[in-house]
Fold this protein.
Amino acid sequence: MCRRKLRLRQIDVSNAFTQAHMDDVDVFVEPPQGFEDWECCSSKHPTRTGQCKCGKGLSYLLHLKRALYGTKQASRLWQGTLCNFLVNECSFKFKQSKADPCLFRAAGDGFEIICGVYVDDIILAYRGEDAFKRFEGEFRKRFESTPSEPLKWFLGMAIDQHEDFSIHVGHELSIQKMADKFIPQNTVTRDFPSNELFSKLDRAQTDVERAVAQEYSYASLVGALLYISVMSRPDVAYHTSILAKFLHDPSPDCYKAALQLLQYLHSTKNKRMYFSGKVQIPDGCGAHAKDIEQNCGFVAYSDSSWGNKYPYPMFGYGIYLYGGLISYASKQLKTVAFSSCEAEYAAASYACKEIEFVRNVCADMGVILQGRLVLCVDNTAAIDIAHDVGVSARTKHFDRAIHYLRDLTQLRRILPLFVDTHRQRADGYTKALDKSTFNRWVSHVVH
């Protein structure tokens, strides 16, 4: 990867589940249609109802020796088989991440290999060409798979790694396919999702509206938008989160808003997430540049909206490492907030959960984040509560869970830092912004 100068390659395992042996659970299946019935045998073999073609006895059931697609335990058996190879059988003796069991790492004198697994698709980040070739030879000797190749496509994402090891990740092709499917011809393109429309969305109010909405493939469209937003387009995370609230009873305006969002994605389909691998000190964080630099440029942002028409306010967070956005979310708080301070405090606590996860994953991958990690919040009252262990009339009703921010602050694992709203990079995850504010915010998440 970029900062550690690791190259990316990909291996695709052929029929992965069938390369895992069954455990001690006996599973029997009927032969598929068209399969020749076997010769009759003694009754000690499991059988199924029905006679053989010869008419002398019953045909066999098949006793599985390998995992089979469609069985309940197939994915678990494949994961266990691959994990056992990497950790125990492979000469490199990978260590499995405790935070994310789909990540493995091996490192030694002059080499490093990180293995990320998604079912049968495997990403390999490495340095040390000779060591990697040895590992690939061992892997392909154990598993039937394609030869490794430079990583260019993964789960629909286009991935470009440049000579300076920086990386671009985008979804141009997937967005184009969605546009071809859902957007009518000669439709006006949009360079900005309409905040006016998104701010007034509601469920269908009449049977007429429900009947009109049933003519649209709303769930299919929103599902596709959610996938794009989660994988590579954080600039539409808030909008897709709002659209998902109305999946069970959408109004015609909901479908119109979803189409407008797709039009925006189509007109900006070349925007990508960028990972430069360079430590950057964001505006407003200069006083704590040392904390950021010694932790690989780690900076997190959390924000929340309060006072809108929803009883549970929206909140969001964005986490940056080496200048790249590595984790983000736009969700609804599980707490009814009585003030903006409580909403911001709760949002920061939920962000801390993700920060601790990132800290643990980084440690498993050889990147040690030490001491206080900077979390930027645009509410001074929330920061004061995090530093103060006392109780007041304004805080005595707070849920115990949202004091997670205070706990980590007292343990000196989190440094809450105030930034004003126009420097708040989580602002776009919580509300619909006007065009100029939205464009300024987008410049921090996609390029």
